[in-house]
Amino acid sequence: MDKKNTVCETTPQKPTYQILTAGQDAYEKAAQAIRDGKIVVMPTLTIYVLVCDAFNAAALKRLREIRHSPADKPITIVMDKSKIPEYAVLNERQTKIIDIFSPSPVSLYVQKKDKTPLDAATAASDAIVVYFQDSPIRDLYECFGSILAISSSNTKALLAAKTIEESIAYFGETVDLYIDGGPAQGDNASPHIDIRTNPVESRRAANHFPFEKIKAILAENGLA
């Protein structure tokens, strides 16, 4: 009796990560995931970013690992301007600049206080890079109720993801939750300026908000 060849079929495994459509329900679920120490990918006004709890050393370590970032690389902090004096040393001029650029598409270097709870995020840096923008990140921040850490959604030397599909291609199941806000509106991370110096210095340029525009805004407010 001939034996028939049999083909063993397997059912593809479902991915362990979730994909949610941007909106209040998604931000509430993302906030809880972050409280649980997880990593989330979500959109800003320009690119997609990785997000975790700024005070969770294990989550910060994991974020650096999946991006292939050095352990001593500072991570940008999301916090509204009312909280910045708790963690940074500011003078009157710097406070005025913060009032102008928070919220905005601009990230600000401020002088870190000694031994803050943000040391795991800022690593060896003496500065905190503060980011606060009217975008889905602000919605998540308000749902989370505390300070977040973010980094562009890419691995070392590659372009930042502009879609959820690009983010998944980079990170796959190393990220726990993806929030899909559609294609990004730009292709640059935020510009960085160092407000500790006088005049202010550019630390990272961005086409969508050039340093010349930043200087013009400062000049209009007598802060050039």
TrEMBL record:
One of its GO terms (biological process) is regulation of translational fidelity. The keyword Transferase applies. It is found in: Cytoplasm. The keyword 4Fe-4S does not apply. It is an enzyme of class 2 (transferase). Its EC number is 2.7.7.87. Its main location: cytoplasm. Pfam families: Sua5_yciO_yrdC. It catalyses: L-threonine + hydrogencarbonate + ATP = L-threonylcarbamoyladenylate + diphosphate + H2O. One of its GO terms (molecular function) is L-threonylcarbamoyladenylate synthase. InterPro entries: DHBP_synth_RibB-like_a/b_dom, Sua5-like_dom, TC-AMP_synthase_SUA5. One of its GO terms (cellular component) is cytoplasm. PANTHER family: SUA5, THREONYLCARBAMOYL-AMP SYNTHASE. Belongs to the SUA5 family. This is L-threonylcarbamoyladenylate synthase. It comes from Acetobacterium woodii (strain ATCC 29683 / DSM 1030 / JCM 2381 / KCTC 1655 / WB1).
